[in-house]
Amino acid sequence: MPDERIPGKLIGAIVAVGSLAFIGILTETVMTVLFPQLMREFNVDTATVQWITTIYLLVVAATMPLSSYLNRRFKHRTLFLAAVALAVLGSLIMIVGHAFPVILIARVIQGMGSGVATPLMINIILEQSPKSKVGRLMGVGSLVITVAPAIGPTVGGAVSSILPWRAIFVIVIPIILLVSLPVGLKCVEQHRPTEEARLNSLQFVSIVLALCGLVMFLNQAGVAVSAAVSGGSATVSAVFAGVSLIVGLGALLFFGWSSKRSFSPLIRLGWLRDPMVLLHLIAYMLLPIVGIGFGYVITNVAQLSLGTSAFLSGALVLPGALIGAFFAPVGGMLYDRFGPVRPILGAFFAAICGPILLLVFSMRLTPVTLAGFYFIFGFGYSLGFSNIMTNALRNIAPQFMPDGNAVFNTCLQFGGAAGTALFSTILSVAQAGAGEEGGATFRHATAVGGSWTFATMIGIVAIAICCLIAAFRIGAKRNSRL
Length: 482
Description:
Elements: H1 8-33, H2 35-42, H3 46-49, H4 51-63, H5 67-73, H6 76-96, H7 100-128, H8 134-162, H9 167-187, H10 201-229, H11 235-261, H12 275-304, H13 310-315, H14 318-338, H15 341-351, H16 353-360, H17 367-394, H18 401-431, H19 440-481
Helix pairs in contact: 1-4, 1-7, 1-8, 1-9, 4-7, 4-10, 4-18, 5-18, 6-7, 6-9, 7-8, 7-18, 8-12, 8-14, 8-17, 10-11, 10-18, 12-17, 12-18, 12-19, 14-15, 14-17, 15-17, 15-19, 16-17, 16-19, 18-19
């Protein structure tokens, strides 16, 4: 395969659009560390303040399915400018808003911006990259997806220790207007014609209901379990969780049924009949449960079990995030050179060693070992994660790539939301009845909850590896018939 050169404008476009997506995902995880300050400022409880993150995830997840339609209907530059406007407007409202509902409105606007920017970046890479460089450029794009949530706790801890929490949004506006906007205006190009695509409103409403229902189920099920274990009333949360699950699954089934019978579906799903691609998608949804959820687990175990400060707990995630920043493009280069099997499976066999070591040493962890074992996971995860999507989309017809991109990115967001809900519930169950925060019993209970969490992580990564092995076997059988 010839060593094709990467156009300079393509690099600029990735930087411009990727920085928007990076800022959106970064602020999502920054806010979780700032919850104590926000609770005091707005006089809300823990369950209420979590809506700052939950509503953001809901909006991002609901916007992602539109990316296929938007990519076919509008020019890349139009979508880029819309993402810039939404990011700036949301940040301005976060700066001046002094009522909790206003902050939630700002998070909705920011979620829409991220929901447009992230798939746009991937579509630009898939459509405009030289074929011999797709893997490494997808690795660069993966930096946005994997590094931003990883360094969010570090940034949040630093901001909360030296500046008011609104300072993070004061900082990002000049970055957007002085870096992302001018670079994007110069470099974002259109390489494929737009289509007269129609928005199927009924399917859009159904997929929004499905995603909102499933995310709300995860959120409220965690609240219900935590309340039941601690001796509180879980009835309302349990009923809400049950209704959300029924609505979510029902809407999802309707969306699938309607898409098969629609002349112009919101997302074309026929490519999911390929079991090899479907197995890649399952792995791609499972792994962010661990990858994104790890940031929550590390910071909480560090503070509540090891007694570190908020700043130090966030800093423990940084080494694993930095190794991810370096090795995601390296993983793409290995994919371009050696194909999918060895780079992907080798990466995740390395990644699973991280939670295995954390489980083995869970009751005698130190901040150094906690950061070190996460570093091992971060190395393997960043090396292989983006290659899963790259390999899957290479096995579907080019005209369906925007649809595949929409589905993969939606599953990524859902997996991240599921991870935080799952691991917070496990820790809450372990901490129930363990006394006041800071006491020896509470710290021990948190360490026990950490061991349960690490065991769960091992199981999730192992299932994902099995899916990938099965997918590669199907691919090998197909190649042997050619």
